[in-house]
Amino acid sequence: MKQEIIIAGFGGQGVLSMGKILAYSGLMEGKEVSWMPSYGPEQRGGTANVTVILSDEKISSPVLNQYDIAVILNQPSMDKFESKVKPGGILIYDGYGIHTQVRRKDISVYRVDAMDAATEMKNEKAFNMLILGGLLKIVPMVQMENVLLGLKKSLPERHHNLIPMNEAAIKRGMEIIVKVQ
Question: Which pTM value belongs to this model?
Answer without folding.
Answer: 0.93
